[in-house]
Write a structure and sequence with these properties.
Blueprint lengths: L2 H35 L9 E4 L13 H4 L2 H10 L3 E7 H4 L8 H16 L3 E8 L20 H18 L7 E4 L9 H18 L5 E4 L1 H4 L16 E7 L3 H4 L24 H10 L2 H7 L8 H18 L3 E6 L7 H18 L2 E4 L9 E4 L4 E5 L1 H7 L3
Length: about 400
């Protein structure tokens, strides 16, 4: 080959390579633009944690606005979690005059910015509002949401206001959960209010993914009672799983089961038949109803059977299924506690159910927790590995 031919061929391939390079750059840029507008990438989640006791149920364990920092989001990303659920309370975000509390909003938006930076998805969950608390019955409160039409419209308005400040985030990375653990008198009461709020959000953000759970604390058995709009594919069906409560909330001071002084175990009988009989004889009617489910042993197969109706409902609706909360207190003997988590995660993985552990910090958290000083300690590596499905 003479030198002129060689040079011409070299220049020809250089032009091709240069064009290919710039084509690649342009495609990458367009892909980035599409991702930022939420048109190219779906909101997909797998395993995450709840950022509790920060902008919701703040117990003052640590200074509020340093409780969750960028380093926390970076840490969760480094572990392999792909999303966070961010509970927020009305009283933490809005003052009593209905105005945004600027420092709280600033930190919420900062957290969402950190999630974008580390490519974590986020679910903004309206956890407690002034007219509705999921644990009102046990905390001496009273929910007015279901009987007060003004309170219902106020709930809808909260989401209209939230949409104004959150809509700038790509639909590929941020989703909304309109209300945590609705406790309505009937399933229809919740269905009607949810669909009213959903319609308002859809007018503003038709492509935003919305997480919806069933009535009565998002219990799994109530999932089939949900009435969802037809042809809305931007929904995720959610349930929470803390069954059996005698195990997961062993010695929890905020439940009516706090007076049980026997031992618990898993798998098998949560409490011995003798303890069950003695406790049932002395407990209140409400507690007796709660411990009836303990007459038979618990194991992975039983838990799977409990979740199955929700799995079938989601499959029928062709929508993703998500366990937005689950957990077991460290008051439970460690081997039993880890065995419970191991079985749950195994079921979630087998059935393709996304999940978020309750919680990041706190007594249910992925850190060891000092119950005296109310402080999170070092990470619980064994628990983290189970939650990551390793």
């Amino acid at each position: 080959m003479n030198s002129i031919v060689f040079i011409r061929k070299a220049m020809h391939w250089r032009r091709i390579l240069k064009s290919t390079f710039w084509l690649t750059v342009c495609l990458a840029f367009l892909s980035s633009c599409h991702s930022k507008t939420g048109t190219a990438e779906k909101f997909v989640i797998n395993k995450g944690v709840n950022l509790s006791h920060w902008l919701s149920q703040d117990f003052g364990w640590e200074p509020k606005y340093t409780y969750i920092k960028e380093s926390d989001i970076k840490f969760l990303d480094s572990l392999g979690f792909d999303h966070v659920r961010i509970p927020i309370d009305e009283q933490e975000i809005w003052d009593e005059q209905g105005k945004f509390i600027e420092p709280a909003v600033k930190h919420l938006l900062a957290c969402l910015d950190w999630c974008l930076k580390y490519d974590l998805r986020a679910i903004v969950d309206l956890h407690i509002i002034r007219s509705h608390h999921f644990n009102a019955e046990n905390e001496g409160g009273h929910n007015t949401l279901w009987t007060d039409t003004t309170a219902q419209q106020h709930f809808v308005n909260l989401w209209i206001e939230l949409s104004k400040i959150l809509s700038k985030y790509p639909t590929s990375h941020v989703a909304y959960e309109l209300l945590n653990e609705a406790v309505a008198p009937t399933a229809d009461d919740w269905n009607q209010l949810f669909n009213k709020a959903l319609k308002a959000v859809r007018q503003l953000e038709p492509q935003r993914v919305i997480v919806v759970g069933a009535n009565m604390w998002q219990t799994v058995q109530n999932v089939p009672l949900l009435k969802l709009p037809e042809n809305d594919t931007n929904l995720i069906i959610s349930f929470h799983f803390y069954s059996p409560l005698m195990l997961t909330h062993y010695k929890a001071s905020w439940t009516p089961l706090k007076y049980f002084n026997g031992t618990v175990s898993y798998p098998g009988y949560i409490i011995s038949p003798t303890d069950l009989k003695n406790y049932s004889d002395t407990a209140s009617e409400a507690v007796r109803n709660m411990v009836q489910e303990l007459a038979e042993p618990y194991n992975k197969e039983r838990i799977h059977a409990m979740i199955k109706p929700a799995i079938e409902f989601a499959q029928n609706k062709k929508l993703p299924l998500y366990c937005g909360e689950f957990g077991c207190l460290p008051t439970v003997p460690r081997e039993a506690r880890l065995a419970y988590y191991r079985d749950l995660i195994s079921i979630f993985k087998e059935e393709g159910i996304a999940y978020a552990n309750w919680e990041y910090k706190g007594d249910f958290g992925i850190y060891f927790f000092d119950n005296v000083k109310l402080k999170s300690l070092e990470p619980d590596t064994a628990l983290i590995q189970i939650l990551l499905g390793h």
